[in-house]
Amino acid sequence: MLPNRMNLKRTTEEQLKKLKGYTGVTPNISARIAFFRSIESDFRYQGQEAKLDGSLVLDKYTWLGETSDVIELVLKMYYPDLDTKEYQQAWAAHVEDGIASLRNYRNLQGFSRSL
């Protein structure tokens, strides 16, 4: 369903990298957290295609880890009619939405309290 190699928008990627600098949480872990924060907030992908121009191109398992099956099932449940490219767009949109609530943490203690 999701492609084997994925990336995000450059701005989202920069926010993930800044968060890593402040908290030490790697971009792939914070992207997973951001995705689920977005799902919990009832954000829904509206089909708007974004330019996924980030330089951090990772394989699906690195981005999603052990949550890959759950993430793909959630995407399939919310968006049953998308194709592979659109699923990547939806995933990236959810990460972008979710990182907005996490990007301002300046230390691991504050970050972990927000979870």
Automatic annotation (TrEMBL):
<dbReference type="InterPro" id="IPR038472">
    <property type="entry name" value="DndE_sf"/>
</dbReference>
<dbReference type="Pfam" id="PF08870">
    <property type="entry name" value="DndE"/>
</dbReference>
<protein>
    <submittedName>
        <fullName>DNA sulfur modification protein DndE</fullName>
    </submittedName>
</protein>
<dbReference type="InterPro" id="IPR014969">
    <property type="entry name" value="DNA_S_DndE"/>
</dbReference>
